[in-house]
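task queued by scheduler; priority normal; single chain, no ligands, no partner chains; default sampling; output format set to structure tokens
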Amino acid sequence: MSKRHSNTPYHLLSRAGKKWRLQRVNDKVGVDQCMFHSGSSDGSDSCGNDFLRSQSLSYSSGHVMVNDDKLSDSEKSSVSLSSSVCSYGGETISDPSDTENGTDVDDVMDNVFSENDNCDEFDSSEDCISPSTATTHFLREWALKNNITLTALSALCTGLKTCHPSCFSDLPVDGRTILRTPPQVNLHSVPPGDYIHIGLKKQLSVVISQLSKPVDSLNLLFNVDGLSLYRSSASEVYPILFSLPTLKEFKGKVYPVGLYYGASKPCNLSSFLDLFIVELNDVLRNGFYGNNKKVNVTLLGFCCDAVAKSYIMGVTSHNGYRSCTRCNVHGKRVEKRQVFPETDCSARTHDEFLNRVDPIFRSRDTPLVNVHGINFVNSFVIDYMHLVCLGVMRTLLFAWCGGPLSMKISQRQKATVSESILSLRGCFPKEFARRPRDLAMLKYWKATEYRNFLLYLGPLVLKDVLTTEKYNHFLQLHIAISTLMSRQKCTDGKQLERVKDLLKYFVTNVISLYGECFVTYNFHGLIHLVDDIHYFSDVFPGITLHDLSAFPFENYLQRVKRMVRGRAKPLQQIGRRMGEIFLSGKIYPQPSILKSPSFRNIHNNGPLLAFCTDPQYNAITYEDFELTTSSPNNCCSSKGGSIIIIENIAFSKEFNEVVIIGRHFLHKENYFSVQDFHSSELGIYKVRKLSSMKTWLFSDIVGKYICLPQGNNFVVFPLRHCDVA
């Protein structure tokens, strides 16, 4: 080649010239690691290498970034740096090759989410060599944490280099270099859309690498659900997700296995789930090896809403006559609704499902029949988030606020309830992700708000508003769900049977109070809620409805939605954002397990009692909740049953450990009694009159309470959930 080829811009070279140029780079640079970088080069050159700049390549911290979108298929296949094996952010990958449409690079995502690499290995040694790489590391974490766009990050880097060239001379100016953005993603065609398979084994390797101590088994709960990314489009993304509800250190953590995006649901369910099922069967049969130890993997089941459950099971939808997945009830049409008034029908069985005994119920084939150890009755849990919160509770509230005249409350009563709700907004502690809103915003309420109304607000604000019959009927639902949210109660077989009978009684009374047209799929499903607690208690003693709910999955779906920054190729955008997170080594924060409560915010303001001294603290953090010395986070209970208002946390010379200084309520009584159930059985009391200051050992504190004022008294509820990890 003539010398003029050395000065010719890369994109103007012929195909042969491009090959010659790349070969010269390989010979001259002599590196054995490269990073394929999508998009056009911005000319960033952290090493000041004029040759590399002239070749339309960037060299930064030992990595070469090639403008692969300017190469044809044959040219990309000819790229041979270090024997056609390249390193992406510290991870060895094979040379990628484009497909015809330029949107599918084989094995790139497969290697980004490599099961053989720990995510910590992606933090290469360059991050601690110089201040410039430390800055790059900081910017990477900052951008990922705050969901900064590539355009904004690139503009920031360019500004830093322009304003402070001496300090940031080695800083890359392209955000993709800092975030190690994967070039393109490996798409599988699943008509009418595409699918990215991240890999179950890859995610299990991440889980095992983050365990605080070795475990013998992992119990997986899966979720498949649709998510609309745009308001004006029918296209949806369908992720396959899993969580580990039996491991406390992974509480609320969700891991993606695969993602589909298309104009509608996959036409062929097998093409959507086959890769997932192959991996799942492998780990279920053979276990998974991590940290030189075999870990058994168990399938807990699938947690989906009614629509997604019908889709992946291949059964009739929730508005069908034979739609119940637990019993053989046959519905009927009442006022254009499908209702299920019967409560004592024969149970479905796994064998009947496989043998298609009820062809009306099982209307389609499903590839899930190939999953090892699955039970088509019990492995598909009843999600109380959709069934109870967004189903039953929402229906009742809409009936009270805007239903027929016979069940609707007056405008004055609605105003009274709204005023009561707003007056209690400041009484909810930090574990509540959302503060309550009034009834004027009812149609905008989220599942957490319906849950909070059912568990905490409803018994207070509905008293003297609903008729006695309807109020007691609501309390039946409150008692049942509160019991199934209590880990202690869920280990008591007798309590579970009482709750099952109570829920049947509740469903039966719906007909007399609201009409037969109200006993829809959601109300009917209440009679099967206790079955899940019974079925999973052997695997997870004390498992609650909250452990088997879709709340963590729904939270993660919103995280996925925030990964999309435009309408062009949303699936590829999500894949790249996940690749950035994985390569950063921050795919999920390391779970923090508190071996003992931790204390924060030292002060010296008192009050102190005899034998109490410094250090004093304002906050104490337990495994599931945090207590402080200020309202509304200062109400708790002790092993002796006292309801305590905390005023200080200090060291006691008498006990030689930290103690809680506070006052307890002297008078406790039942707030309600319904169907031989007393509120005190659930830890709910009406309380008044505080004692003088006393001390309690911090180890004697067993739970956090919510203290809601009612006139001259207070009503206290134990915390049944925890939104904030």
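post-processing summary
- Residues 384-548 form one domain.
- The CA atoms of residues 289 and 605 lie 53 Å apart.
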